Amino acid sequence: MRTYQNKHHTYFYMNDSVKDGLKKIAKYNHTTLSNLLEEGAKMIIHRETMKMREDMHDLKYIRNVMSH
Description:
Distance between the termini: 62 Å
Number of strands: 0
């Protein structure tokens, strides 16, 4: 078994059509299902972090407007 630094096993269920589609995409991109899912998760984390930053900026702006 390979050992990967800072990586841990994660198990989850998904329907067959989703899993098959992801496997096809991984094969097309010459990568593993695991790497494909990790990259997708990173994209989601980045997108949601940007949304949270924008929301915090908007909240600070509203607080600033309300305090004057």
